Amino acid sequence: MSRKTSIGISILTAIFIIVSSFYYLPYYVTKPGMAKELEPIVEVEGGNDEEGNFMLTTVRMGRANIYAYVIAKVSKYQEIYPVEEIRAADESDEEYNIRQLHMMDNSKTAAIEVAYKKAGKPVDYTYKGVYVLRTMEGMPADGKLKPGDLVYKVDDTAFSSSDEFIKYISTKKPGDTVNLAYKRNGKTNQVKIPLKALDDGSNRPVVGIQLVDDKEINVEPAVTVQSDEIGGPSAGLMFSLEIYNQLVAEDLTKGYEIAGTGTMSPDGTVGRIGGIQQKVVAADKAGAEFFFAPFEKGMKGSNYEEALIAAKDIKTNMKIIPVDTFDEAVSYLENLKEKSR
C-alpha cells in the first residue's frame, strides 16, 4: 500500500468516526454522575455552619451515538433506555428539559416547606399562574405558546389555581376566543387563542397545553437554592436535610459525609427515584460515609434493596440507610454519634 493510499484511508476513517459520533441512536445512556456538596448550593440567611457535608447525587444522561451505546453495553453501571421511556410521545428536547427543571423546582419548593415546618418556621405561598410544560401538536396553543411560558391572566382576569383556569375555559364553547396574558423570558405578552373541542367525544373546549401550578414559596429567614443546572425531583430529600440543618442549632452531619437521594412531597414523604445504583457508585467515589435511600415501605425491589446490591458489589464501607419520611432521616441523624477526630 502506497503512503498516499494509507493517508487517504486514515482521512476517510477519521471522517467516518467524526460523522458517526454525531449520529444519534433512539436511545439514552445513563451513567454515575457526581456527589455534590450542598452547602455551597443552599444558603439560609443567617444559617448555621456544619462540620460534615450533605451531598446530592446525580446521574449523567445523554443521547447515545454508536460508541456510547457499545460502551454502555459492556459497562456494569451504565444503562441504556429507549427514547420513549425517557421522553413523552412527541416531546421535544426543549420540552423535556423544561419539564425536568420544573420537576426540580417543585421538589425544591417541597423541600423548603418540609424543612421550615419541621423547624417551626412559618410558610406561605404566592400564586403566580400556570406554567406551560408543553403544547399539544395541532391544538390552538401550538405555535402561540411555548414550554416555559407563565400564563397569569385569562380575558384580563387573574386566577388562583390551575383548576380555576380550567373551569373558566370550560365555560366557553369550541370556536370561542380567549385572551391569555403570559410572561416569557421576563417579558409580558398577550395572545388570542381560539378554543378547540377535545378529540375525545366530550366536545370540551381546550387551549391545548400541558400545565401545572406555579407558586412561589415565602419563608423567613430567606433561603436560596442554586439548582439551575440540576434537573428532576430526586434531590428533594437532601435539599430538605441541608435546609433544616442550617435552620437548627444542632449540626446533624456530626462531621460525616452524608449522601442520599429521594423525592420529597410537601407532607414529608420520601419517594422512589431512578438510577439508584449509579448514585450509590457516585456517592462512594466522593467518599460518602452514609447514604439515604427510599425504603418504599419495604416493598420488593425498592430503591433501598437496589442500593444494597450495588453497595455490596462495589465493596463500599458506606452505610445504606432506608427512609420513608423526612422525619425518619432527621431522627437517624439526631441519634448518630459525633465523628471522632
UniProtKB/TrEMBL annotation:
Catalytic residues of the enzyme: 234, 279
Top-level enzyme category: hydrolase
Gene Ontology terms for molecular function: ATP binding; ATP-dependent peptidase activity; serine-type endopeptidase activity
Lon proteolytic domain span: 229-336
GO terms (BP aspect): protein catabolic process; proteolysis
Keyword Hydrolase carried by entry: yes
Keyword Zinc appears in the UniProt entry: no
Keywords: Hydrolase, Membrane, Protease, Serine protease, Transmembrane, Transmembrane helix
EC numbers, comma separated: 3.4.21.53
Regions that span the bilayer: 7-25
Chemical reaction(s) catalysed: Hydrolysis of proteins in presence of ATP
Pfam family, one: Lon_C
Domain (PDZ): residue spans on this chain: 111-186
Top-level taxonomic group: Bacteria
NCBIfam families in UniProt: SepM_fam_S16
Family indicated by similarity: Belongs to the peptidase S16 family.
Protein name per UniProt: endopeptidase La
Source species of the chain: Mesobacillus subterraneus
Lineage: Bacteria, Bacillati, Bacillota, Bacilli, Bacillales
